[in-house]
Fold this protein.
Amino acid sequence: MALQRKTGLGKGLGALLQGDDVQVTKNAGKTDSVAKENTNTAAGSINFIKVNQVAVNPFQPRTDFDEQALQELSESIKVQGLIQPITVRQVSKNEYQLISGERRLRAVKLAGIDDIPAYVRTANDQQMLEMALIENIQRENLNAIEVALSFQRMIEECDLKQEELGERVSKNRSTVTNYLRLLKLPPVIQAGIRDGQISMGHARALINVGEIEKQLYVYQEIIDKGLSVRMTEILVRNIQQQNKPKKNPVGKQLDFQYQKIEDDLASRFSTRVKLNLKNSRGKGAIEIPFESEDDLSRILELLDW
C-alpha cells in the first residue's frame, strides 16, 4: 500500500515545512551539520526507521494521551499499517528526534512493530518547537489549557507577538488572547478545564470575575449544580452588579450576612437577586428579576410554584 501524506495542515505549518521535498535548513546550526555528515536517508522523503532509534521530542506540548484511543490506534496499525508517517530530524547516524507524531509513535510501540515510516528533516530547536506546537494546536482533541500553554511557549520561546502567532496558527488575535487569559485562572480551575469538568465557554465567563475567591466560588457552583454556560454568565453578571457601590435607605452597604444571602439566592436562581432593606431593623423586600416568560417559568419551578 502506497504511503500518502495527509493534506490540510494549515497555512502556518505548510509555510514552515515548505513541501515534502524541501529541507528546512535556515539557521539550522551545528545539529544540521551532524545530521548531514551522518545521514543514511534522504531528507524530505519517506523512510522506514527503527522505532528504538527515535527519541521523543522534548518540546512536545501534549501531556495527556487517551490510553483507550492509543490501544484502538495500535490495533488499527497492526491490520492496516501506519498511514500517516511521523516527522523526525536526524541528529546522528542512527539517532532521530521526533518533531511530530508522538501519539502515532506510541501506538506503533504498543503494537510491537520495529520499523516506522517517517519524514526525515533537518531543523534547529526553534523550528522544531514551532512545528511541534503548531502540529498539536491544529488537532481538535487538544484541550484548551494545552492550547494556551502552547501559545504561551510560542510567544516566549519563539519570540512572537500575538498577531504573528495568530498568523502561524490561522487564528485571529482575540482567539489567541482568550486562550492566554485561561492561564491567569487559579490552578484548580485550569485543572478543571484540562480534565473536561468545565468547558471553554464556562472558562471565558470565569475570566470576567475579577477576584480569585469569587472565581473559585463560581467554579464550585458550576461543578456542584451543573450550571450551563448561559447560567454561569448570568451568575457572573450578578456578581459584577453586586460589586458596584449600592445605595440603600439606611445609608450603608449591606452587612456581610445579607450580602451572603444575596449571593446564595443569585446562585440558586441563576439571576440577579436584590435585598432592599427598608430600615435598620431588617425590614425589606427581595427582588428577583426575570428576562422573559421562559425565565419566569424557570424561577417559578425552582420555587415549586
User: Anything to note?
Assistant: Residues 188-302 form one domain.
